[in-house]
Every structure is written in structure tokens, then in C-alpha cells.
Amino acid sequence: MLRFAPSPTGDMHIGNLRAAIFNYIIARQNNEKFLIRIEDTDQERNQEGKDKDILYTLTLFGLMWDQLVYQSENIHYHHKIAEHLIKEKKAFYCFCTEEFLEQKRKEAKECKRAFRYKEEWKEIHKSSNPYPVVRLHGAQNDLSYYDKIKGNLVFKKEEIESFVILRKDKSPTYNFACAVDDMLYDISMIIRGEDHTTNTPKQILVHQAMEYPKKIEFAHIPIILNEEGKKMSKREQSSSVKWLLEQGFLPQAISNYLIAMGNNTPTEVFTLQESIAWFNIEHISKSPVKFDIKRLKFLNREHFKRIHDTDLALMLGYKDASIGLLAKFYLQESSTLNEIQEAIDLIFGQKNMDNENFINFKKDALLLQQHIHQIIAEKHPCLSHFDDFKKELMNRSLLSGKKFFKPLRILLTGRTEGPEISDLYPLIWCFLKDITQIKETH
Ligand code: GLU
């Protein structure tokens, strides 16, 4: 089984989504189940409703799970296993007070050496501290594991000290709960962000202490950098999946982008389902990659082109398939659904000629509108060809040059700039009456 294990502590970061996608793909490739495990054991950091948000996001991306579990449901197993480890002398109670450890940390810092927990301290505060934590014995030997992206990683035994598995309130720590659950659910491969690389030896230590026979595989995905080359923080808008969706990036374009990042793909534009045929986690580059919104915009446009005209029209709130075609025409200057929506709504909205950018063209626009409506009423044969229509309208209005084109553009598109009217006209002439409505003002 593969798993994605989000903590319900905030909005989903694109790095998390990338891990979810990779786990999903590999589950499908290997015909294994895909588990979502909501890691909700840290009560203080949990945020109300974030679990539902995460599940909703996964659904939008088509990352359908076979099983869903909230980690807190397994706490009795965490406790049982901790008891077992204490009995087996693989784990022990540590009575050190937080103040004591803080003091030791301070001393280490002052002496400029790394802080290391020492087991000899464990009973110093036995009589005065009724709330011990439980620690697992640290590594006796150096520990290494093979990472499918980073290769062989070696950790010195001194780096893996005895660590807390149950806090003083008996709640399991992340490393312990995670390691136990990965055994309970028979996880075969763990794919997650590289910020977890140093947690992995601790989790392996839990597996070893339980004499778990299965060898779990690991892949740690490099972090995503922002355009300045720094780690993309949660506070940066474009790192939030929710923000990208709100801007009108398509889920299929976002997953295309996240799969292609630091990867060599057989095609540039593909769907998640298509990538199942060729995706190979070992081809993901081990160096971090910069987030490139221009590239994402390009892929978004490409995925818009793949959407059926009727569906695209519906996405924009219109029933006529030809609006889908019109939307695709606007991809020459728009990349997101919001940008396309804005352009289309301006075309179909009433034109407010009192707008300060339009006011100078108001008189001519009114004149053109009158003639256009006359031409429509006559069902004049010029209507279906822009050149004929233009000539006819110029003849009737006696306008030409800028005095003709600017007000015409405003009447047709609600803007003073934009794509060539001659290219646009074939896509809108059948709606001419509707789109040349001017807002009445007093
Ligand atoms: N809850 C952890 C996180 O969101 C899970 C890491 C893991 O996949 O083990 O970072």
C-alpha cells in the first residue's frame, strides 16, 4: 500500500500535493492500494476543517483513495506498541524535566557543540516528575537507507539519539505514530518531502525495534524553490494549492507541472492518468527546482486547448459551445480561467460608455451601435464577413480610422485594447446584437 499522510494544520502546499500525486501514481502502477492518513495527533497544531479541505483538494485532482484513516483512531495501537517496547527494554521512561533539558541545550550551545540527550539523565527527576515521557533507545550502529531519489544516505549513530515516542501527556510523537502506522497498513514505499530525510532513520529504528521484517522503500522529494531560489514558504501565495485553484489554474495543468518539474517526461503536456504509463520516481532530479509560474501558465493554456468547447463554455457559465471556442481564442493573451472569464464577460456585458476610458468614444459608439442594429434588423449579407461588415458600417457611419476602430472595439469587447478585431469577429458575429448593448446612464 502507498500512502499520503497530510497534517490538517494549514492549506495544502504544492510540495504536499506533489507527494500525494507521486504516491497515487505509484500505487496505480503497482496495483496497490492508496491510503490517505490524516495525521491529526498534534492537537495544538490541528486546524478545524483542514482535513476536509485536503480531501476536497485531492478529489479535485482525481487522487481518489482506497482507504482513509485519521491517525488519532490508532492511538491505542501506539500505546500498546510503546508498552511492548518498554517491556522489551527497547524503550524507557525518561523523567527529565523540560527545564533541565532546556538548561542542557543552553550549555551545549554556549560550548558550541551539538546537544545530545544522554540516557544517564533519565531518572534524575524520577521523584519530582510524575509525568515521564517514553523514549526509544537511539541507534547502536550507523544507519543507512537507500533513497530512490537521493541514493544511499548514511547517518552516524550519534546523530540518532534516544528520542521521544510518547509525550508526557501520552500522545505519540510524529515519528513514532508514523512509523507504527506504516507497519500497520503494510506500506511498501514512502514518498514525502525531503524535510523528512532525517526523520526516516528514527522511523527505521522503530521498525527495527519491532523486528518488522518488511523493507519499506523511501523517496524524498526535493523542496520547491521560489523564483529567488529560496525555499518556497507556506506564506507565499503561489505555494498554496487553494490559491492556484482560485486564480483559475486547472488541476490537470497543476499536476502536469508538478510531475514534469525536475523530471524528463516523454511529452510536455499530459494528464495524470497518462503519466501512469511512464512515470519513474528515480528520474526525479535530486536538486531542488524553482517554481516557474510562466511554465505553469503555458501548461494551463495547453490544457484549456484540450477541453471540449461545450465544457469550457459551461466552466465560464455559458451554454453555447461557440463561447468555448471564443475562450480558446483568448488564450493568446490569457492563461487562467479568471483571465479568460474576465475577457468573455466584458464582451457579453453591457458597455458603460461613461467609463473614463471610453467617454471620448461615446458619441461614435452610439452611432455605430445604431447602424449595427439596423444592419442586423435588415439581415444584411455583410454580417457574416468582417471585411464586408466593416465596409458597410464605415459607409453608413461615415467614420474611419481610429474614430471607427476604437469605438467598434469597445462596443464588441468592452476594452480599448486586445486581439485583432478581424480575427475575433468570426467568433462573435452571431452574438452581435447581444454584445453591442450600451449601459443606460443618467
Ligand atoms: N504529516 C507529515 C507531513 O505532512 C507526513 C510526512 C510523511 O509522509 O510521513 O509532513
Short descriptors:
3-stranded antiparallel beta sheet, alpha/beta, binds glutamic acid
Q: Any overview of this molecule?
A:
With 442 residues, this protein is of the alpha/beta class. Helix content is 43%, strand content 11%. It has helices at 14-29, 50-60, 75-87, 98-110, 174-184, 200-209, 241-247, 251-260, 272-275, 293-306, 309-315, 321-329, 337-348, 362-377, 386-397, 401-413, 421-428, 432-435, and strands at 2-4, 34-38, 67-70, 91-94, 133-136, 143-147, 151-155, 163-166, 189-193, 217-221, 224-225, 289-290. The strands form five sheets. It has a three-stranded parallel β-sheet with strand order 1-2-3, covered by helices on one side. The protein has a three-stranded antiparallel β-sheet with strand order 4-5-8. Strands 6-7 form a two-stranded antiparallel sheet. Helix 2 links the parallel strand 2 and strand 3 (67-70). The mean pLDDT is 96. Residues 5-7, 39, 178, 192, 196 line the site of glutamic acid.
Relative helix content = 40-55%
Q: DSSP strand (E) fraction?
A: 5-15%
What is the first-to-last residue Cα distance?
Answer: 68 Å
Low-confidence stretches: none
Rg, alpha carbons: 31 Å
Mean pLDDT: 96
Characterize the biggest β-sheet: 3 strands, parallel
- Overall shape: it is elongated
Q: What is bound: which ligands?
A: glutamic acid
Structural class: alpha/beta
Strand order of the largest sheet: 1-2-3
Number of strand segments: 12
What is the H/E string?
EHEHEHEHEEEEHEHEEHHHEHHHHHHHHH
> How many helices?
18
